[in-house]
Amino acid sequence: MAKRILVPVDGSEQAAAATAFAVENVPDAAVVLLHVINPAEAGYSAQASVPSFSEEWYEEKQAQARDRFDELAAVASDAGAESVERVVEVGRPTKTIVEYADEHDVDQIVMGSHGRSGMSRILLGSVAEIVVRRATVPVTRRAVRWANRLPRPEFRLRERGCTAGISRERARLICRAHACRMM
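The chain above was modelled as a monomer; its predicted structure follows.
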């Protein structure tokens, strides 16, 4: 029996990484791309109380979800996914993801995460962390850290002369610890 893997998507780089990770690690699985439209994002302004604004906002969010699905479905198909389902739900993301997994025979959830730690994680929270705590199926978090977007640490190490006096093997270990490449 083929596995069903749920991949919550929000248009971020982390969601794309989670999609690719899911397909690469379980190529024969059915991938379910889930986008949750959070009504709280519409706001509580005077404009938001106008019915036509709410409908326009919702239609815009659905169109954005379709565009994201097209991109991610192409990534999944290119990587060899057998089938890719696209689902749009409305609600609080954490609750909706967990409920969808419970109600639709999902075997595993693969989520993208910013990989935050410390104070930023406490202040900003993490949808992935809450899903990990509440889900009844296994959850895999695929972290894409901000450090990957900055210049590689080996450049900073070399500019500061930090690699002088250490062996190439030690420099390689430092780079692995910081997720960078040796030059």
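The chain has two domains: 4-148, 150-183.
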